[in-house]
Amino acid sequence: MSTSLINTKLQPFNATAYHNGDFVELSEQDVLGKWSIFFFYPADFTFVCPTELGDVADHYAQLQEMGVEVYSVSTDTHFTHKAWHDTSDTIGKITYPMIGDPTGRITRNFGVMIEEEGLALRGTFVMNPEGEIKIIETHDLGIGRSAKELVRKVQAAQYIATHDGEVCPASWQPGAETLAPSLDLVGKI
């Protein structure tokens, strides 16, 4: 049985990322103060991974406008991320940090390490500015994720963070009605 990481704090880490043509050092301190997405994937130079990372790249400007930073993470090195970025048109459009986690520490902290393979599951974690995990989505290796749905989930998380007592129903979109759980609402949905 596993324990959920929802509402737990981001664990300390130090890592090197490939970001906009440079190698940059990152830690948990760089993540705090803004909404963040940690987007884990199994490995560079694979098949489903570039479709997902490219999809996130296509939605990155929208996420940035929402005050969200994206960090993709695999157990590859930052050198491998650069090589992939330089040789793939899909990966070449990425402008968010690509974190190398060759020791697997970050991947293990988020509970998505496949130990016998040294690879990450497809795990998505959304954190609020305080570093608390608010959304978790984990897929098996052959199932790709949707950046459009990720954007919607982040919008919902941001909405409820600023609207105490309200919740977002299934398929909620910005501007749609929310719910205010109460005794009067029981059995009426």
* Rg calculated over all Cα atoms: 17 Å
Overall geometry: globular
**Which blocks of ≥5 consecutive residues have pLDDT under 50?**
none
State the distance separating the first and last CA atoms. Answer: 32 Å
Largest sheet: 7 strands, mixed
CATH architecture: 3-Layer(aba) Sandwich
Helical region count?
6
Mean pLDDT: 95
Number of extended strands = 9
Q: Looking at this structure, what is the CATH superfamily? A: Glutaredoxin
The arrangement of helices and strands along the chain is: EEHEHEHHEHEEEEH
Level-1 CATH class name: Alpha Beta
Which percent bin holds the helix content?
25-40%
Quaternary: single chain
Number of domain units: 1
Based on secondary structure, the structural category is alpha+beta
The CATH topology annotation reads as Glutaredoxin
Q: Hey, roughly how much beta strand do the residues contain? A: 15-25%
What is the compact description of this entry?
Its main location: cytoplasm. By secondary structure, this protein is of the alpha+beta class.
SSE layout and pairings?
Blueprint: E1 14-19, E2 22-27, H1 28-31, E3 35-40, H2 48-65, E4 68-74, H3 78-87, H4 89-92, E5 98-100, H5 105-109, E6 113-114, E7 119-120, E8 122-127, E9 133-139, H6 147-162
Parallel strand pairs: 3-4, 4-5
Antiparallel strand pairs: 1-2, 1-5, 3-8, 6-7, 8-9
List keywords for this structure.
two-stranded antiparallel sheet; single chain; alpha+beta; 7-stranded mixed β-sheet; 189 residues; Glutaredoxin
What does this protein look like?
This protein is an alpha+beta fold and 189 residues long. The protein has a single domain (8-185), classed as Glutaredoxin (3-Layer(aba) Sandwich), CATH 3.40.30. Helix content is 30%, strand content 24%. The protein has 6 helices and 9 strands, in the order E-E-H-E-H-E-H-H-E-H-E-E-E-E-H. It has helices at residues 28-31, 48-65, 78-87, 89-92, 105-109, 147-162, and strands spanning 14-19, 22-27, 35-40, 68-74, 98-100, 113-114, 119-120, 122-127, 133-139. The longest helix has 18 residues, at 48-65. GO terms for molecular function: NADH-dependent peroxiredoxin activity; thioredoxin peroxidase activity.
